[in-house]
Amino acid sequence: MPDLQPDQPTVPDPDRGRHLLARKWAYLLSGVTVVSLGRDELDTELRGVLATLCACLRGTSADTAPAERIGARLVGLGYVGEPGLRCTLDVLAKGLPALPELQAVDRLAERVALTLGALSCGFLRAHERSVLDQQEIMHLSLLKAVRDAQWHLKESEARFEEVVTSSASGIALVSLDGRIVRANAALAEMLGHQPGELTGSVLYDVVHSGTVGVLRTAMEALREGGRERVRQSQRLLRKDGDVARISLTASLLRDAEDRPGYFVVVVEDGTELVLLQGELSRQALHDVLTGLPNRQYFGTHLETALRRADPVYGVTLFHVDLDAFGMVCNSLGRRIGEQLLVHFAQRLKVVMAGEKAMIARFHSDEFGILVENTATTPDIGTIVRAINDELAEPFFVDGHGLALSASAGVVHRPSKGIDPVELLRAADQTLRRAKERRRGQWKMFDREADADDRRTQALAVGMAGAWEHGEISVRYRPMARLADGGVAGVEARLHWDRPDERVPAHEQCAELAESTGLVLPLGDWLLRAAGRQGEWWRQRAGFGLPMVAGLTGHQVSDDALGTRVTRLLADTGLPPDQLMLGVPVGALPVSGVIENVTALADLGVHVMLDEFGLGPDDLRAVQDLPVDIVRVDRRLAEWQSWSDSTFLGALVPLVRQVGATLVVDGIHTEDQASWWRTAGAELGTGDYFGVAEPAAELAGQFAGT
Question: Of 314, 297, 318, 295, whose CA–CA distance to 306 is shortest?
Answer without folding.
Answer: 314
